[in-house]
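Interim report, section 4.2 (structural modelling).
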Amino acid sequence: MADDFKVTPWEVTGDIDYEVLMQRFGTTPIDDALMKRIAKYGEIHPMLKRGIFYTHRDFGKLLDDYDKGNKFFLYTGRGPSGHTHLGHIMPWIFNKWVQDVFEADMLFQMTDDEKFLFKDLTLKDTRALAYENALDFVALGFDPEKTKIILDTENIKELYPIALKVAKKVTFSTAKAVFGFDNSTNIGSIFFTTIQAAPAFLPSERAGKQIPCLIPCGIDQDPHFRVARDAAPGLNYPKPTMLYCKMFPGLGGGDKMSSSDEMATIYTTDSPKNVKKKVGRAFTGGCVSVEEQRVKGGNPEVCAVFKYNFYLFEKDDKKVNDLVDKCKKGEILCGECKQMLTEKINVFLEEHQAKREEAKEVVDSMTFDGFKW
Amino acid sequence: MADDFKVTPWEVTGDIDYEVLMQRFGTTPIDDALMKRIAKYGEIHPMLKRGIFYTHRDFGKLLDDYDKGNKFFLYTGRGPSGHTHLGHIMPWIFNKWVQDVFEADMLFQMTDDEKFLFKDLTLKDTRALAYENALDFVALGFDPEKTKIILDTENIKELYPIALKVAKKVTFSTAKAVFGFDNSTNIGSIFFTTIQAAPAFLPSERAGKQIPCLIPCGIDQDPHFRVARDAAPGLNYPKPTMLYCKMFPGLGGGDKMSSSDEMATIYTTDSPKNVKKKVGRAFTGGCVSVEEQRVKGGNPEVCAVFKYNFYLFEKDDKKVNDLVDKCKKGEILCGECKQMLTEKINVFLEEHQAKREEAKEVVDSMTFDGFKW
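Predicted structure of the assembly:
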């Protein structure tokens, strides 16, 4: 497959070849041995089994530490540039599983500063969006006793000294090479990566000793954490351990669900009617006519509807395999498949939206250092 | 005079030609008309009369505003990289005069973050030095009701959102051109100027309207405030008004007193004995022998001892002129001059050190937003 795709924290273009990307970034595949090892702690999450979380940095080492009684904390985050869609919550669902299995404390960083710097948004905008996004995060059921939400502009006093320490170790050369910055990049954007590094080191800084950190997130964030990992040893912080997932696909067939295409994006607050409309327009692997599809079958590999089942909405492996089989044999048509997915998404969203309402009662108690929204 | 000198906030090298520097930076001389205008508000400070504060940006405009009842606040600061010496307090003494004459509120920023980023110091070091420096600042008698001390890492929550707004307006290109950064500069140093800009805009941000700001400081800080002034209009902040002074000379004859030469630097905590020793070794405009000097006279223009009288320790213009006269005629020798200066400095330091002790009782009540040291 071609190598002409680009993945940075701010831009995903071209058709991503995830194997090539892994080699490019220098991360390690999650192989059978590691998978077997993970299975000892709890039932393997479908996102691992299906290769959605597919590559890592030092995960085996983290488990070695864990086995010795050295507990890690979880850290992931969200850049609040828009309303929450399914692509955002996918890795959060995985984080929830890790929290449950390993009884891990968790930091969730909302980078309102980043989105102000990189997008045409005010700080008021990004703060309001952060609140909306936080409701979705909380709705997923993270343990309120073990989970704290960081809002960068609110918690900057704790983050800033750590960010400074990281910043002192990172030259513009490095930032340029890692993120593709140039002379026209604003100096806030150049500095920002240090703020994203900070939560990974915050518990170590507070404790005055190394507390291991696991960051499950999209692989597009690797440039940030390469920088953070390079800086860590010189600061006597532990290198954060990474577990990376693929991007959640867009309904239009693209590699990454993006708010830039509203109709190919399912938001957590969408109505059942909207979901039906959006899924109805989804890109599928079907043929141009029913007759042709009955004979030739469809292609689930390119089908957004199938991917949604595979990534999030069909947890039963047997049912996933059946779906592939039936599709390829022409036994199931796109309309039927879309209808089933619509129902699954709407069932999920109905429950999620109820929990999202409840989250409004809890979200204040989960802020880091007790800030008020 | 040669143009081969360099003045940035972090480096002063070569023989500074202050006229050339003014042209290079594009600031305006303080001319007779402006001086006459200032005289209407109070007795002209010797540092203005003697051209130590010698150039400005928009000072006339600030006075226009003031005359219309639009009060300004003062802002100056200190990078806590070492103990306070006479070169540091010189512009603070001037600030105190401005505060008194214009009854101005004042922000004093201590950039512990900057000195961490630019020097081989820890954040603990720069914080401890900031406290020491703050005592000297407070000892000068600033009105505790009108004066607040900012410590960047303590007050970052107020500074950061403003810094982000500035940062979004400043490209790496600009930072490179203004400060001479290159690819090897760390990304914290690149970002830092936005933190130094923030206090200039902080009262405007808090008030939700434009509050004029006057910054009397060393001309080496102009690069920072050029950036701040360029960013201001787009953020609906007022451009800060600048009053710039020349660098306080070193005892060794250099253009800037610097802690890198301990023996040519008089610290505010020096003992009378130490002062005597340091002044005794000062570079003068004297001749090699007493006999020669009696005949040829000395050269006050290059003499550090004379400069100390001129910059800080002889407020009486007549006495300054007498000193020049007598020196040139060989009527006064260097030893005598050094002895007189030593006495003046020690009288000043005795009083200052007593006030510095008293400052320990007040300094906590003068912190911005009430932080504890």
